[in-house]
């Protein structure tokens, strides 16, 4: 198993995800421990894209609780339907926020975060976790991110649930 993420220099975003996906697969498919896999996926995304914050919140009862992440310290608990993460949980859909200041109820764990994407991890129609990514730039995330991040989250679900 390779423990180093390699992306060829100059790759565009789509190409980067296409190179990253099989490397993430080989990184996590031989490992059954959930925390280890979530931690390595967060690290692989942070390292590849140089993002501000990448991490998982896990559904525990009526709240999302902070799981493995890379970046500055963050809020530990988020209620159902609260903020971007809670919205993705309640609505069972990917939420892309080009400007966090324009998202009503956005939870600002850091004033440095300017845009955000949250992808729910869904098993048998129930959200069991969300992947949350924050950028220091406006408008960092688009349909390309949504597509590939959803692939990564589906892979995690198929290995973990
Ligand atoms: N901004 C998120 C909270 C989590 S932090 O960004 C890490 C939200 O509104 O749900």
Automatic annotation (TrEMBL):
Lineage: Bacteria, Pseudomonadati, Bacteroidota, Bacteroidia, Bacteroidales
Gene Ontology cellular component list: cytosol
Designated name of the protein: GAF domain-containing protein
One function term, GO molecular function aspect: L-methionine-(R)-S-oxide reductase activity
Pfam families recorded: GAF (PF01590)
Domain named GAF: residues: 33-160
Family per similarity comment: Belongs to the free Met sulfoxide reductase family.
Organism: Candidatus Gallibacteroides avistercoris
């Amino acid at each position: 198993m390779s423990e180093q993420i390699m992306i060829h220099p100059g790759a565009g975003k789509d190409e980067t995800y296409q190179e990253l996906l099989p490397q993430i697969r080989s990184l996590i498919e031989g490992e059954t421990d959930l925390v280890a896999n979530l931690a390595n996926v967060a690290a692989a995304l942070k390292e590849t894209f140089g993002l501000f914050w990448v991490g998982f919140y896990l559904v525990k009862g009526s709240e999302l609780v902070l799981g493995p992440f890379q970046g500055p310290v963050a809020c530990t608990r988020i209620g159902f339907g609260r903020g971007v993460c809670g919205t993705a949980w309640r609505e069972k859909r990917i939420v892309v926020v080009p400007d966090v200041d324009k998202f009503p109820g956005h939870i600002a764990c850091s004033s440095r975060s300017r845009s955000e994407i949250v992808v729910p991890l869904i098993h048998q129609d129930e959200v069991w976790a969300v992947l949350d990514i924050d950028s220091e730039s406006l408008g960092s995330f688009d349909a390309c991110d949504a597509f590939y991040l959803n692939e990564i989250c589906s892979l995690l679900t198929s290995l973990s649930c």
